[in-house]
Structures are given as structure tokens and as C-alpha cells.
Write a structure and sequence with these properties.
- The protein contains 13 helices and 17 strands.
- It is an alpha/beta fold and 418 residues long.
- The strands form 3 sheets. A 7-stranded mixed beta sheet has the order 6-5-4-7-8-11-10. It has a 6-stranded mixed beta sheet with strand order 14-13-12-15-16-17.
- The radius of gyration is 21 Å and the shape is globular.
- The two termini are 37 Å apart.
Length: 418
């Protein structure tokens, strides 16, 4: 881990305001990962921003500077949650569990922060439980509206929460799936949840677990819309600063390894802190996540992985093999831009989301087609970019074996699937 001395301006921690002096990972320059291009834009200038991730030596929050504003990233967004069958099943299971455990009914209110296209709230609606979605991307919020889900097209924070409470809105359940990492002002966000939550209400947040990111070398989950990367210890510290207590935690397989934390008002003693909270805190402490030294080698490990990915692709092309991509996720664009993988290696990629068809990946300009393109061209290798969904995708692409094709995942290391 290097101490940076040549930063163009003084960067400070978004949580504790301490100067940021240490590098966690430097992935060079990359365009915003969801800024897909039309054919007419291919010869126009494209803006690249640093993907330089810092580590605060005071609170140990791993973070990216706000190089790109949330308005620039999220106002028109290319990610629609409903195009993953496994993610929909995950959402449905969560709703069933929370509706029963919290005894939610027609007098309750579930509020989702970054509710996307209504992928989750639709299951509360089916059970007759009132909901409110808060989603800054107007294009995906329109999809939620078509499903009959009330949605505010706004960014959530202290100010919006105060307005809602003044209008008589309070939440029995506040949930945020994969939004905590996307928030540049974590203090306003957590204070907003504190304001909006009923006295006996519950908050659940799901986010990628920094411990798993490091263990499995998931550097491609670093992109401009992920402002923070949380260990459990740091996430708990951030919520505690807004007088919120984490009383339970679950470790999930989603997105390469995530945490679901359950929080309440610190004053609400009706839900005691579980042993799982104490156990995970002890594990992270034992693994060194409370010490600066633990984060030192990650940047070098990322560089080594880049070399292995490129070695596989170079060898395959030397053998005359054809390679295409599967998926056009944000993590894939980070990996492709960092490794310098363009159409010299991947002929094209495919995606189930029609919004991306006929467009080109940011930075690398790899064309995006419908999934049926794979059957038409019969490639030797399909390079799976959303590796966190590899089991779901492996089932969808079982037919690739018909012509001897193979599936490949790049993370945590290059693997040709049997």
C-alpha cells in the first residue's frame, strides 16, 4: 500500500473527514460503467475518470472519491434488476420473510431506497402491503410505475426524509439492496433512515462484503457508482454515528458475497443484538480488518489477476479460438477497461436487457447483442462477465456444449467451466 503524495487536491474521508493518504487499489482511468454508447457516439470524445480507491487510516472506510456526480451516474440508468431470475427469487424470498417476521399488513409501510424497476416492492404489493419506492433514475422508475408501485424520482437523504415525515410518512421497514455503497454522503443517508423509521421499525441493508471482495479478488466490483466498500466493522460504525444499532447480520452469496444487516433505533431495546453480530465482528477483528496492514497487498493482487486474464485470452487467440462475452454489467466494464480488453479479444457481448441491445460498451466499444447471437455464431469460448450469476448463466447456456464451446469466468481467477 502506497502513501500518495502527489494528489491533485486534498481528499478527505466521506465519513470521518480525515485526510486520505493510502491507496487500496488503482485501476487507472475508466468511463462510468453504465454509460453505454450508440453507434453515432463511437467517434465522439469519451470522458474517463480515475478508479483510484483510497483507504482512510482513521475509520478504515475503503472509498472512491466522488469523481462523477450521482446525478451524472443515476439520472438515466442502464441497470434493470428484473432481468435476473435469481435476483427476483432472492427478492421474493426476502419479502415473504419480512412480511411474516415483522407482521406487516395493510396498515404498514415498506420503503425501498433505490427501488429500481419495482423488482422487489411488487411482491409486497401482491400481499396488500403499502409501499413507497425512492429511485433517482427516471427511466427505471417508469417501469416501477407501470407495475403500480408508487415511486419518488429523487435521491434519498436527510432532507427528503424530513420532508416525508412532515407529510406524515413513517416507515415500518426501510430496505436498501445494493444502494449503501452507491451513496456519496453516507452521513446524510443514514441520518435520513433514522428520521424516516418508526420507533419500532427495522432497517435492512444489503451490500457487497469487503472481506469477500478481498478474499475472492473481486476488483471488478469497483466502479464509479460504488463510492464506498464496507467491512462489517465499518458499516456498523457508520450506522452507530446516526444512533442506529445493528442487531443482526446475515452473510449472503449474492454479488460474490454480501451482508444483510438489520438495524433499529438505538433506543429500541425490543430487539437484542444477536450472537451473529458479535461473531462476525470477532471474525473481522481476527482477520485484521481493524488494522491498516491488512489492506496493504490488495493492489498487487489485482495486477497479478490482470496478467492471468490477459494470458488466457492471448493464448486462446493464438490458437485461433473465437471468444465472445456474456452480459454487460458494470463490473464487466471495469474489468474490460482495466485489462484493455476490446474487440481484439471479444468479438461482442450479449445481454438479456433489450435496453442495451445495439449499443456499445463504454471505453472498449464492444457491441452488445441479444443472447440469441451466441447460437448464430457458435463461439469457442463465452466469457461470463457477471460471474456472480455463473450458475444461472451456466444453465441458460447449456446448449453451448453442443458445438464444443466452453464457458469461462475471470473472477476470482480465470476458470474454464466443465
Amino acid at each position: 500500500m502506497s502513501t500518495t503524495t502527489d494528489q491533485p487536491r486534498a481528499a478527505s474521508c466521506r465519513f470521518c473527514d480525515a485526510p486520505l493518504r493510502h491507496t487500496f487499489a488503482d485501476l487507472g482511468m475508466s468511463p462510468p460503467c453504465e454509460s453505454f454508447l450508440s453507434a453515432a457516439q463511437l467517434n465522439q470524445p469519451e470522458t474517463f475518470y480515475p478508479l483510484h480507491v483510497h483507504l482512510c487510516d482513521q475509520c478504515l472506510l475503503v472509498q472512491l472519491e466522488e469523481y462523477v456526480s450521482p446525478e451524472r451516474i443515476f439520472s438515466e440508468y442502464a441497470y434493470f434488476s428484473s432481468f435476473s431470475d435469481s435476483w427476483l427469487a432472492h427478492a421474493r424470498s426476502y419479502v415473504e420473510r419480512m412480511a411474516e417476521s415483522l407482521q406487516l399488513d395493510g396498515d404498514s409501510l415498506a420503503v425501498e431506497l433505490a427501488s429500481n424497476d419495482g423488482y422487489l416492492l411488487q411482491y409486497f404489493v401482491q400481499r396488500g402491503i403499502p409501499v413507497l419506492g425512492i429511485e433517482p433514475a427516471a427511466n427505471v422508475a417508469r417501469e416501477a410505475a407501470r407495475k403500480g408501485i408508487p415511486t419518488l424520482v429523487k435521491f434519498f437523504g436527510r432532507e427528503l426524509a424530513t420532508e416525508l415525515v412532515q407529510d406524515g410518512v413513517r416507515a415500518d421497514l426501510i430496505l436498501g439492496n445494493n444502494v449503501f455503497a452507491h451513496v456519496p454522503d453516507v452521513r446524510s443517508f443514514t441520518q435520513g433512515m433514522k428520521i424516516l423509521l418508526k420507533p419500532r421499525g427495522v432497517i435492512t441493508l444489503e451490500f457487497p462484503h469487503l472481506m469477500r471482495l478481498m478474499e475472492s479478488n473481486q476488483f471488478d466490483t469497483i466502479y464509479h457508482e460504488h463510492f464506498s466498500y464496507f467491512s462489517f466493522l465499518t458499516a456498523r460504525r457508520v450506522l452507530a454515528a446516526s444512533d442506529l444499532t445493528v442487531f443482526d447480520v446475515e452473510e449472503l452469496p449474492t454479488h460474490g458475497g454480501s451482508l444483510r444487516i438489520f438495524a433499529r433505533h438505538a433506543q429500541d431495546e425490543s430487539r437484542p443484538v444477536s450472537e451473529r453480530v458479535h461473531g462476525l465482528a470477532r471474525r473481522e477483528e481476527s482477520a485484521g480488518f481493524g488494522r491498516l496492514e491488512t489492506y496493504r497487498d490488495f493492489d498487487e493482487r489485482v495486477k497479478a489477476t490482470k496478467r492471468r486474464i490477459l494470458a488466457f485470452l492471448v493464448d486462446a487467440k493464438r490458437e485461433g479460438k473465437t471468444i465472445v462475452g456474456y452480459g454487460a454489467p458494470g463490473k464487466g466494464n471495469t474489468l474490460l477497461n482495466y485489462c484493455g480488453i476490446r474487440t481484439d479479444f471479444l468479438d461482442y457481448t450479449v445481454d438479456r436487457n433489450p435496453y442495451k441491445h445495439g449499443k456499445f460498451l463504454p471505453g472498449t466499444h464492444i457491441p452488445v447483442f441479444a443472447v440469441e447471437k451466441i447460437r448464430e455464431t457458435r463461439p469457442d469460448y463465452v466469457f461470463i462477465l457477471p460471474w456472480n450469476l455463473k450458475n444461472e448463466i451456466r444453465e441458460q447456456l447449456a446448449y453451448v456444449r453442443d458445438w464444443g464451446g466452453r464457458l469461462v469466468v475471470p473472477i476470482p481467477d480465470v476458470e474454464v467451466l466443465a
